[in-house]
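[SOLVED] Need 3D model of a two-part complex

Original post:
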Amino acid sequence: MAQEPTHIRFLDRRVVQQWLVIGTFSLAPLALLITFTYLPFVKMIEFSFYKMRYLGPRVYIGLKNYQDVFTREDTVSALLNSFYYMGAGVIQLALSLYFATILSYKVRFANFFKATLFFPFLVNGIAMGFIFRFFYTRGMVFDSLLSLVGFAKENLPFWLRDRAINNYSIAATSIWRYMGQSMVLFIGAIQSVSPEFYEAAEIDGATRLQQFRYIIFPMLKPIITLNVMLMVKGSFSAFEGPYVITNGMNATATFVVMMHQLAHEAGKVGLASAMAIVLLFIILIGTILQHFIYNRLFGEKTRSII
Amino acid sequence: MKQPRISPVRILVYISLVFGTFVSLVPLVTVLIASFKNMREFTYSGALDFPENWFYLENYLVAWTKAKMPLAFWNTSLILFFTLGGSILTGTMIAYVLNRFTFRGRELLKGAFLMANLIPGVTMQVSTYRIMTSLGLVNSIPGIVLLYTGTDIIAIYIFLQFFSSIPTSLDEAAYIDGASYFTIFFKVLFPLLKPAIVTVLILKGVAIYKEYYLANLYLQSKTRYVTISTSLYTFTGEYGNQYNFISAGVMITIIPILVTFLLLQRSIYSGIAQGAVKE
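Solution:
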């Protein structure tokens, strides 16, 4: 009786088993990925060429929706609102870098300060909405604080209604909410630098400022760059603050808030889809630029961090 | 060693820290204060005035029942339990496949998962909403669980990275001892993934607890499918500007996460640090 050499049977069994495990283990994750990411993505491209609602007939209108995204007053102003969030993002990063640096040195009650600066990040979306509606309401928290330091209550503006300032008011809440998160990130990065560096620098007589300038800052450059890029992308997709605090009223809608309202309230699903595609395109360009700039600045060596 | 001495710079540093803490806490503390005031007191006292009675709990009782908090806590617990379980199972399984086997199409599969991370979830809801509707997943706890599980790419990143730190010689040895790949995964590798699982539990747990938009969009019946984050929605209508009740509701949603934070501070910091680098 001719018998197969045992190693071939062994291999066969092994290959079959491998495919079995690959198949069964990929099935559920892949099905979820397709259903909730790629199918909606393809559908969204399709929708963007139609004038349509969620239910009922639809009309093919070619690129009209895309044209509208860049010409309608409300969508353009929503897109421009991103710059308020970019400004807030710059302040957020600067503050978080500052607090991360000083909290990494010997400071009394460092854990307490770190915890209180970080905690707002954990507050849920709608609670934050109520907290800041209360905070900014006429005669409530912010007005009371300002009158304590000498401002006349009557002369204060309506923080959420006055179109000259309401976008600043809301963008400021994103600093409150996310500063702690980036601070924790930076603290992690600073602590990954070996303490011997600082000790050596201290022995050489370097001041704290010099230590920051010549040791901490260069070490953090990659993560700072990365955060700047994330911040730019994040400001184009800023959403929860304006959504829960004002629901986009009085010209505070950001691009994504506007998109949500057009789709789910005004029934302009086609236009909203076109907005989403435009946003994804902006993010894609941002990501490509990020890789390009990053490689230029830091070369191949640090590439793995991305 | 030099003794830290009192210098003007040091004083400025402390002033900035105290100011930062003040800014962080004032919005929260003023809500806490408002939550202990009765209607009359809330109307006539300033927002910064302390309440007459720090044990006035009437607002909490009203908020607890009006906002259907018991049901909200139950629903959120269910969602957390099944989503976290699902994310960990699917995340570790796909990471195992992508990290341990070489096969035709692996890079494509990996790319498909990692690319998904570029797309911000909220932007996809315009069309996802249609898909959820046609699958009958709107107003259903399993529906939101599937959505939360299916859009979780960060967990896959974390598991992928962790897998690459576990030597393959371990799998080989187990295989030679006669273990099947399933046994290797569940008995040998899964227990070793514990640190990564903890990171994912924290990141994902916090994210779901905080998440408002999807919960609000897909769990529309606020009588049956209310969650902790959507429970406060009740107060947008009839309670309008009655911030003493609203504040109590806000505090009820904040307390569980505050307690969790105080207990797990270190793990939360390290979870955030690990998760965000890969964003």
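Edit: Residues 159 and 166 of chain A are 5 Å apart (CA to CA).
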